[in-house]
Amino acid sequence: MRTCNELIGMPVRCASRVLGCVSDICFSYDGRCIGLLIDEQKIPFMHKKVFLPAEQIVQADAAGIYTGTHLISSADQPEKYLRYNQLKQKMIVNQEKKQLGILEDVYISFQAGTMVAYEISDGFFADLQGERRHVPSMNTAMTLNNDTIMLAEQ
């Protein structure tokens, strides 16, 4: 299990070759992790974002993310998805319109292909005291508004 904040910036490798670095994580609206956006680095200072489907991730550890393929295509990118960078620092609201807190991080499992939990903050002063809550994300669908994420049970 990994957090999105841990994954961003990690190198993506195939064998010993570095394909690029993770720039974002993509989720479906029903809470599945569908893949990673990679800054592909073929030429120094020239970056191209490509999509790596979650099914092609073989392993994720402290050294990086490993895939079994050298070929990553931008054509494989799904049409509708949510990016972690769109979700972080937004207020989370449940079905009853109760504010749960501000989304700080998302725990994901590549083996299961799902979001496992949301790390939620109650604000700056709660963060200073080290108080963050973990809310399980199983069986929840997300709707993204301008400044809130609405969670609904499926």
From TrEMBL:
UniProt cross-references to InterPro entries, sorted A to Z: PRC-brl_dom, PRC_barrel-like_sf
Pfam family, one: PRC
Occurrences of domain PRC-barrel (ranges): 3-60, 81-150
Name listed for the protein in its UniProt record: PRC-barrel domain-containing protein
